[in-house]
């Protein structure tokens, strides 16, 4: 089997259950318009995250890595009216584009973008007593994934769902000699997750229009 069949099936599923409205389509278009990388999650992955948030009955969601706000919008739409989502974005340009997209989606009152390094903002959230969050989605720079997860635990409660994207890296995590920082970060994260007794976790391989990767899922004990 090749990538074409994976992409075709992904599109088939999207047409059935992963419909994108004008706000989501505009968010995807905003990437090219702003010269940003087209690395958002797929529509099917967005719908999957939305369903996970609904299963968690999430009222408070934390996201690491906003980009243009595509995944942010999918998850925020699962929130009740009094729910809140805090999303962290390093690049001020990306944050500005995301804010416009979030405003267009009618979610400005429920979504707060914080700009800066996640590794600096996470301790601030702990100090502020911002948690516990019901769901945390990690989709930022890969080298510090392990540290992000450790901070996520401090912002969690028993039952919190922590999701980490891009942890298989096209299968490159199997190569111990691969020196790519993103691959090394994913390998280090995966090894930590497998040994972590504070959570019950698994990793799912994923294929589709985003090619081949995987997501890790952990429930805090």
Automatic annotation (TrEMBL):
Transmembrane segments: none annotated. The keyword Methyltransferase applies. Keywords: Methyltransferase, S-adenosyl-L-methionine, Transferase. Pfam families: Methyltransf_3. PROSITE patterns: SAM_OMT_I. InterPro entries: Cation-dep_OMT, SAM-dependent_MTases_sf, SAM_O-MeTrfase. The keyword Methyltransferase applies. It comes from the Bacteria. This is O-methyltransferase. It comes from Niastella soli.
């Amino acid at each position: 089997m090749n990538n074409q069949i994976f992409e075709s099936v992904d599109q088939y599923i999207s047409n059935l259950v992963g419909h994108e409205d004008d706000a989501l389509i505009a968010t995807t278009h905003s990437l090219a318009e702003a010269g940003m990388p087209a690395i958002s999650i797929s529509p099917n992955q967005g719908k999957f995250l939305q369903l996970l948030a609904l299963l968690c009955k999430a009222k408070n969601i934390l996201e690491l890595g906003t980009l243009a706000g595509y995944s942010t919008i999918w998850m925020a739409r699962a929130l009740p009216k009094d729910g809140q989502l805090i999303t962290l974005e390093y690049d001020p340009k990306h944050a500005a584009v995301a804010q416009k997209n979030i405003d267009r989606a009618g979610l400005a009152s429920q979504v707060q973008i914080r700009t800066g390094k996640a590794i600096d903002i996470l301790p601030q959230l702990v100090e502020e007593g911002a948690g516990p969050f019901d769901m945390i989605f990690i989709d930022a720079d890969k080298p510090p994934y392990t540290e992000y997860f450790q901070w996520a635990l401090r912002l969690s409660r028993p039952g919190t769902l922590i999701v980490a994207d891009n942890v298989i890296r096209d299968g490159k995590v199997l190569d111990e000699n691969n020196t790519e920082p993103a691959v090394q970060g994913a390998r280090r994260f995966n090894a930590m997750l497998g040994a972590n007794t504070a959570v019950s976790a698994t990793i799912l391989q994923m294929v589709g229009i985003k090619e081949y990767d995987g997501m890790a899922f952990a429930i805090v004990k």
